[in-house]
Amino acid sequence: MSSLTLDASVALAWLFEDENNEYARKVMRAASSRTMIVPPIWPLEVGNALLVAERQKRITRVQADDSLETLAGLEIIVDPGIVDASCKDLCVLARNFCLTTYDASYLSLAMRENTSLATLDRKLRLAAKEAGVALFE
């Protein structure tokens, strides 16, 4: 089973009806035959996005909890290896590709694990192409 680095942007598109699109649905279909790996920042990003959406009355608490249950049912592995990457290394990568260090953690993980990257983030997609990281298409 091959792996796929999953950006929070795709997972959030699964959870918010108004953000769901064909690309996100294609990644979801691929999830049954691939292991999805994420950096340690991923649960914090997803959790925060759901909490903000709840506070803004975009979703209810029940919907937020249901979304977390949905994600918990998927084979998503939080990769601890990114912790070994120094903050300096992530800053260098972020500088080189004009990314946040958060997005650089996804790029770094995809590079280290030699996986394709599933993301809806335009800047991260451009950086991946420039870095020679395969994008999930």
TrEMBL record:
InterPro entries: PIN-like_dom_sf, PIN_dom, PIN_Pae0151-like, TypeII_TA_RNase_PINc/VapC
Gene3D superfamilies associated with the record: 5'-nuclease (3.40.50.1010)
Official protein name in the record: PIN domain-containing protein
Alphabetized UniProt keyword annotations: Magnesium
Keyword Magnesium: yes
Pfam families assigned: PIN (PF01850)
PIN domain: residues covered: 6-129
